[in-house]
Amino acid sequence: MEELLKKYYRPKLPHMWCPGCGNGIVTAAIVKAIDKLGLDQDKTTIVSGIGCSSRAPGYLHFDTLHTAHGRALPFATGIKLAKPDHKVIVISGDGDATAIGGNHFIHAARRNIDITLIVYNNNIYGMTGGQYSPLTPHMAKATTAPYGNVDRAFDLAQLAKGAGATFVARSTTYHAKQLSELVAKAILHEGFSVVEAMTGCPISFGRQNKMAKPAALLAWQRDNTITVEAAAKLNPEQVAGKILIGLLHEEAAPEYVTEYAKVIKQAMGGER
Ligand SMILES: Cc1ncc(C[n+]2csc(CCOP(=O)(O)OP(=O)(O)O)c2C)c(N)n1
Ligand code: SF4
Ligand SMILES: [Mg+2]
């Protein structure tokens, strides 16, 4: 880990994450995936919006952008169109990606642009003190829902798939090794890839939901998830109520930047 720290992290401590926050585990999973793939640091750009999770690129030694709340994907789209040979990774919170940035999320998925989006899903607006997000579970407590959240949560994976994402995966900070392997696969996938990283926020979510200890949040992830492979061996009643983790969807489809380049060529008088 020390080598990874020297190579991929900026010497910028202390960081702003609370003790027991899962964001460091997700960020390390991304770094390990990048290292495993041997990506060129000068050709890897990491973009984020605003939130606790969105602070991650600031700690990483790549070309990084910390943009506006919910707007990381439009910035990343511009970068990918201008520099098609760059790997572009977007880090977003659940609120960032599916509330204020929900529109950008579905349209990036629809376009199938070759960007990898990692959603740090802590089920809450962490940075601003625990307001509910579209991924806060039904009847979970939030500062804006002290009696429980009556809204039903999105299933991020289904939302991504329905909007056209061609790679969709989910894992947790408890399953950090699997999470890193899925991030690596997502980066290699040509098209819009989404990885939901379930992560614990003991301060803004856990304290309101009887999981103030970081270990309680990890135990929740362990006890409420099941791998796609294990679920395939069980009948539906045995899997009911569990959250599926692993590679959930993968398909090949025309990629946006490649298709756009063909249109540019045609407009310049060439053949398509
Ligand atoms: C346009 C705009 N609206 C609202 C905010 C305030 N704000 C900052 S972070 C945030 C929510 C962050 O939640 P999430 O995306 O889930 O990230 P987390 O902090 O949980 O990692 C909000 C509402 C803002 N910075 N900009
Ligand atoms: S508020 Fe939650 S998500 Fe934000 S740094 Fe603290 S523990 Fe992490
Ligand atoms: Mg959040």
UniProtKB/TrEMBL annotation:
This is Thiamine pyrophosphate enzyme TPP-binding domain-containing protein. Keywords: Oxidoreductase. Residues 50-196 form the Thiamine pyrophosphate enzyme TPP-binding domain. It holds the Pfam family TPP_enzyme_C. InterPro entries: 2-oxoacid:Fd_oxidoreductase, THDP-binding, TPP_enzyme_TPP-bd. It comes from Sporomusa silvacetica DSM 10669.
